[in-house]
Amino acid sequence: MLGLIIAMVFVEAVLLTLIIYNLISKERREVEIRVTEVVGRAPTVREQELKAPLYRRAIKPALTKISSLVVKAVPAEKEAELGKKIVAAGINEKIAPRELLVIKYLAAAGFAALLWMLAGITTKTFVQPALMGAAGLGLGWLLPDLYINRKGMTRKQEIEKSLPDVLDLLTVSVEAGLGFDGAMIKVVEKTGGALSGEFKTALQEIKMGKPRTEALRDMSGRANVDDLSTFTGSIILAEQLGISIGNILRLQSAQIRQKRRQRAEEMAIKAPVKILIPMVLFIFPAIFVVLLGPAVIQIVRTFTN
């Protein structure tokens, strides 16, 4: 009987404690709910880590650690050259030059081992696996460079294509009364793509205290586009000489559109010449087989009889 009474007292004490805690924390929970409804729930550190791509969570830290081991073996000129390629491709925020060099080493070793094993399965000699391994070594070393160069060329073409429209927007904004920095902000707000990203980077550099002329020069150097370099040079010269920027923008837009039209006409003129190569190698032989094949067969039969 005494044990039952003690158990009941214990249960009542626990329930009373829970009720008091609920009453005390109720108001705080209501405030937290209202704040969450208005502001939104702040993600935890774990949720932020899981939202990051797999490359940033696992691959990039591993590349950083490996690149720290081979940093002494990387020449400064080679690192600078890789850095220029990465900036031209627009992936400088994703990968560093040393990390790209590590990827080249790993790709070369991986392709060499893969082709070596495949050749070893098909033949028992040593020469063919060695040749295949050497080919895989060169292929793995060159593939990252081919990817970077291809991405840089695509980005360069995108900038060349969008530059006239961006210049039109800059012209309208300047003539509406905005300063050149305000017109650049409008370009960032209203457009997207690689050129808009370059303008955004230039604006951030200007806000950090870099002179506008230097920010524009750095932008043209990163993009490595002739038309953009001409445009930034004209803007810098107009600012130094006190010439109206609106007129410069309108003239630059017309000239760049004319250059783009000339490039399109040049590509159209080169198209027939480029078509001759697949025609001679693939189309003409098939036509000759279809047209002359029966005649050749008949001639052979005549002479054999």
Estimate the strand proportion: under 5%
H/E element string? Answer: HHHHHHHHHHH
Main beta sheet strand tally, sense and closure? none
Question: How would you sum up the global shape?
Answer: extended
Query: For the record, what CATH class of the domain at 156-262 applies?
Result: Mainly Alpha
The H-level CATH homologous superfamily of the domain at 156-262, spelled out, is Type II secretion system (T2SS), domain F
Helicity level:
over 70%
Secondary-structure-derived class: mainly alpha
What's the overall average pLDDT, rounded?
77
Amino-to-carboxy terminus distance: 124 Å
Number of helices: 11
The tally of beta strands, per DSSP, is: 0
Low-confidence stretches: none
Which oligomerization state do the chains in this entry correspond to? single chain
> Radius of gyration in whole Å, from Cα?
33 Å
CATH topology of the domain at 156-262: Receptor-associated Protein
CATH architecture annotation of the domain at 156-262: Up-down Bundle
General description of the model:
With 305 residues, the chain is mostly helical. Among the domains are: 54-153; 156-262, Type II secretion system (T2SS), domain F (Receptor-associated Protein), CATH 1.20.81.30. It has eleven helices and no strands. It has helices at 2-39, 45-51, 54-69, 76-89, 97-122, 127-175, 180-190, 194-207, 212-223, 226-241, 245-304. Helix 6 (127-175) runs antiparallel to helix 11 and helix 8 runs antiparallel to helix 9. The longest helix is centred in the last third of the chain and has 60 residues, at 245-304.
